Amino acid sequence: MEGKTREAAAAAAGMSVPTARKWASGALPLQEQGSRHWRTRVDPFAGVWEQEIVALLERDVDGVLEGTTIFEELDRRYPGRFAPGQLRTLQRRIRDWRALYGPDKEVFFEQVHEPGREAAGDFTHCDELGVTVQGEPLDHLLFELTLSYSKRTWANVAFGETYEALVDGMQRALGFFGGVPAVIRLDNLSAATHELRRSGGCALNTRFAAVLDHYGMASSLITPGRAHENGVVEQRHFRTKRALEQALLLRGSKEFESVTAYEKFVTEVIERSHNRHTADAFAIERQHLRALPSTPVPSYTVFEPVVRRWSTVRIGSRVYSVPSRLIGHTVHVRQHPDVVEVYYRGKLVQTMPRLRGHAEHRIDYRHISGSLARKPGAFARYRYREELFPSLAFRQAYDRLCTSHGERADVEYVRILHLAATTMQSRVDQALRTVVAERVPFDYAHIQELVDPQPRTVPNISIGRPDLSVYDGLLAGGAL
Q1: Whole-angstrom Cα distance, residue 402 to residue 90?
Q2: What pTM does this model have?
Q3: The total number of structural domains that make up the chain
């Protein structure tokens, strides 16, 4: 303290006058101490470090052997010698040994991205978020496309890594960006690539290559099995899912009324957590993006199958039922990312959810219930019989019919099924729930009465006055 006595300075610093005199005349105490080179306690790993532990570390050329594994091995070799609290000491010593003598680690090279040059895209699974739609778990993915320079990000819900989902997501993202980058960098998605048998690598398939030609973009593929080469979007996946997880916690519920409502929520989270921080960089990058083409590429695949006599069509490797009146006709089918549309002579006649995952067929009982009611014997060994139980109530009702009606159960059930197809499934379902819960005998007529009761009317019968002269004539023996 300039202008103050040593006593006043010592009092202000909270120390004694001798200590202040010592600090003022020489080096600080920490400078006098120097570095310590002796141990303050006995080394718990003396006798085993150089002989056993270092030997194990030297053989571990990939640097993957864990300290817990080594500690467990030491405890097996020397029972009771080591305490659990010494594990952390061993881990620190292994860490320091590897820093000085261990194998080299893989180096990642920070990249300099030019504005407008590259966008990185990929799908990521989001089941761990626990989102539900109308009470049902939403098994879904997110497709994300991120501009490598500005980190501007687009994301939309997808239900599979399909060609249609890839093209749909990419085109929606480019529309959001308002322009086209020079290169799109992708993982080796089966929707966009095919395997090269001779070299073991991958190349773009014909369909996706045509889409990129339409937009004037080049493709950049990563090495199979090395996801870090697409680090821009992989890091964005991590940050997006973390932001969604936190936003769902703040929202207080993971339940949504529809997929559309959930996708809107995802968009809002990304805008708030990602894109609002990229405004300045995106303003620069936007000037380097090329203009979008005048028309987009259809994000669906077209099939032209003939409806088979089973009232089904095969789309790719999956089977869908269609109205039986189309049997024998060629239909135009459009397979979108999430729905399948069936056209006949340019008119839309059927829209159905696209099959996902391991599901291989979708049979709508309404398409075949009329024929099945006329041929109830076909039900017993129908290939897709399990598809003809629209709900648990129908399955339980059939089991009850098998118990009470024996061989006639199939006849009664297919009539009930046809009733559901020609009236309302919900009303039939409720009637079946009622009779199953009450454990009362039932058949088709009983269910029909519950679903569509017919009003009972008493006929008005008028009987005329009888002509007794005819009877008198018979008594007299006269002819009629």
Answers
A1: 68
A2: 0.70
A3: 4
